[in-house]
TrEMBL record, chains A, B:
Subunit structure, interactors included: Homodimer.
Keyword Iron-sulfur: no
Organism: Methylorubrum salsuginis
Protein name from the UniProt record: Phosphate-specific transport system accessory protein PhoU
Highest taxon of the lineage: Bacteria
Function: Plays a role in the regulation of phosphate uptake.
Keywords of the record: Cytoplasm, Phosphate transport, Transport
Primary localization: cytoplasm
Amino acid sequence: MSEHIVSSYDNDLENLRRSIAEMGGVAEKMLAEATEALVRRDTTLAQAVIVADKRLDVLQREIEERSVLLIARRQPLAIDLRETISGIRVAGDLERIGDLAKNIAKRVVAISDQAQPQKIVLGVQHMSDLVQEQLKDVLDAYASRDTAAAHDVWERDGAIDALYNSLFRELLTYMMEDPRNISFCTHLLFCAKNVERIGDHTTNVAETIHYLATGEAPAGERPKNDASNYATVLPGA
Amino acid sequence: MSEHIVSSYDNDLENLRRSIAEMGGVAEKMLAEATEALVRRDTTLAQAVIVADKRLDVLQREIEERSVLLIARRQPLAIDLRETISGIRVAGDLERIGDLAKNIAKRVVAISDQAQPQKIVLGVQHMSDLVQEQLKDVLDAYASRDTAAAHDVWERDGAIDALYNSLFRELLTYMMEDPRNISFCTHLLFCAKNVERIGDHTTNVAETIHYLATGEAPAGERPKNDASNYATVLPGA
């Protein structure tokens, strides 16, 4: 579409899309850097992640208020209205992803002085790698309105939950083996839980893409495999 | 105001307020019952909490969609527009509170077969009692548009964070004393974290009340006292 026939309303929607893409970029970077900070015990990088979260909060509030003004001024119907509602929802999920990444970064500061076998951290890193891929894929799917790709992300969340579940048990086992691991592993448990919840938010975005295309929530239950809420590990087990 | 002079727009806003009040009631009940289920190890009550969360999800989506339709149809300005944005925000916080209460209920099921000293649970109960009071007060403040009461809730969140911090250390100490406590105490740690985050969401609602009245976010930083992200406990300490 050449520039002179683009209406002011299209411009507003385009700006909304651009802000959400910016939020997506910040959230992706925060998760990648929080994980890198955890693996390398890099408190400087962790502090940078904590600071980056402020930008995400500002962007979310702007998107929310601009979307609502856009609705009030333009009175969009059907697909355009859904686009605006979807923008508000996706911005909310990305803001939460930033909060969770920031929380991982804060924990990196907490455990920076504790010498622990690096292999315990690798499980969290592996899980984060998978979630980063999910996040990238779902942001691409949102930008290109690709419901098939969104559905693919939606289905893969079960694998992340299963991974979290096994990591949860593994970390509990380390704690039982040696009480000196408890403090460190507790922070890792929360880090892993944060990564799992970031996975849930990518699933939310996938559902929003489905809603954007169809006006409906996806049929069927989410592919949840998170049994860790029910998991217990006994000493010596 | 007698019924015949109430405009259709006022009716829409009134319905929005009523739905939010219903969500608030469900969320309060879920937190109270999840805590009671935890203290009494009552898995039947815990299951009821898990089921109740579905109603909250439905109500949130309805509020979001109805608010946006209301904006599109009525083009409200200034205070009425803020009322609608605020409704979307508060509904989002209440939905998250329900999720967190549901997660506590799921953990009650996990630890139901473990015999542990009841006193460990009492710290979580005490924290939950405080948060329930905050939640009640902030919902009242929202219903009556009482910014002074909202500010009071906002300031009290620091005390809950401080309590969580001390509970975090206490639970880590129990884990170090006896590895048989680890599995149980890990679930309690997550329960306590959930309660602390419910406190954060009540603070969000308090901020929304301020925004509703003034059109601005509250000045100054949140009174955060949550040092537990940085806390570590050493064995024997």
